[in-house]
Amino acid sequence: MTDSRSSSEEPHGGEPDWVFYKDRPEWSDVEPIPQDDGANGVVRIAYSNRFKDVYDYFRAVMKSCEKSERVLHLTADALDLNPANYTVWYYRREVLKALGSDLKKEMKYCREMIEEHPKNYQVWQHRRALIEWTKDPTAELRFTEMILSADQKNYHAWQHRQWVLQTFNLWTQEIAFVDDLIAVDIRNNSAWNQRFFVNSHNGEGWTKEVIEREVNYAMAKIKKVVKNESSWNYLRGVLNQCENEDKKKELKSEIRSWCQTRYEEGEKSPYMLGYLVDSLQQDLEELNADGEGDTAASKSELIDKLEKLCNYLATDCDKIRNNYWTFILDSAKRKHGEAGG
């Protein structure tokens, strides 16, 4: 049975003059195909009459493989109702190809959809496809910058930006862009992640000079805000890229010395103390690996230091992770032996 209500009874998106497709003379040649949920659907979705009308006609043109301007408009109406429908986006691209459509116009449409639905996988995939067709990424870095200014944690915008950087080798200004983000918000974890991504993929690689530069950069930010988890995580990541063991030990020794001094001065950063805990654990692992001479005294000293730090973290500095620090200490004692106990 068809719906006899007038368009004014179901306005949508500020369009009181909406006309159902079934009432449009230019669509009279198309037989709509209703959705088939089976005879005994368990949970039926209460689709609006407009939704059913649009998608019934969309199914019909999909079946007939029609690719025309009117179908392009139909896909826009379908996406207005459900912008996450991957099939509609796919078919829209097929129509665009068949018509040889103006892709600049389509980019504008895509931008408007992203601005309205910035965390929609399908619309970002559509934009990537358009860039692949046009091979013109000139507006993409600025566009993603605009989206990120509204939400710095928008994963889709970051993913698209990274794809553009890699695909079109646009690394030149990216470190400066990240620097600006971190200058505005030193705790912007997404910006720290992007800095690591750039250094890992820009072709320069993690050379000795890059590692030294990035360690110095991270330490400068840590000294500015010592209770910032993002910069500590970045520092750990950079050190892990150092393949020269002597250089790695040198850098870690310098950082540990700084941490130890700040700790003795009363600094209570859980991330700084966590770094010291990691360093002590690594020392214990190295003692086990060496297996030379009597290491009992050394182990006892390291475990005593580890115990003091873990207890301090668990009971004072990082109470919320009490169980974690207790676990770290217990694990170390079981693995390396509670010397002197």
Tally of strands? 0
N- to C-terminal separation? 84 Å
Q: Describe the oligomeric state of these chains in a short phrase.
A: single chain
The portion of residues assigned to helices is: 55-70%
Shape: elongated
- Report strand %: under 5%
Measured on Cα atoms, how large is the radius of gyration? 30 Å
Tally of individual helices: 15
**Mean pLDDT reading:** 91
Can you walk me through this structure?
- This protein is mostly helical and 341 residues long.
- Among the domains are: 171-265; 268-341.
- Helix content is 67%, strand content 0%.
- It is built from 15 helices and no strands.
- It has helices at 49-64, 69-81, 86-99, 103-116, 121-134, 140-150, 155-168, 174-184, 189-201, 208-224, 229-240, 245-264, 270-290, 296-317, 322-336.
- Helix 3 (86-99) runs parallel beside helix 5 (121-134) and helix 13 (270-290) packs antiparallel against helix 14.
- It is elongated, with a radius of gyration of 30 Å.
- 26% of the residues are buried.
- Mean pLDDT is 91; it is low at 1-14.
Please give a quick description of this structure:
The chain has helices at about 50-65, 70-80, 85-100, 105-115, 120-135, 140-150, 155-170, 175-185, 190-200, 210-225, 230-240, 245-265, 270-290, 295-315, 320-335.
Write out key terms for the chains shown.
mainly alpha; 15 helices; elongated; disordered N terminus
Give the SSE layout:
Blueprint: H1 49-64, H2 69-81, H3 86-99, H4 103-116, H5 121-134, H6 140-150, H7 155-168, H8 174-184, H9 189-201, H10 208-224, H11 229-240, H12 245-264, H13 270-290, H14 296-317, H15 322-336
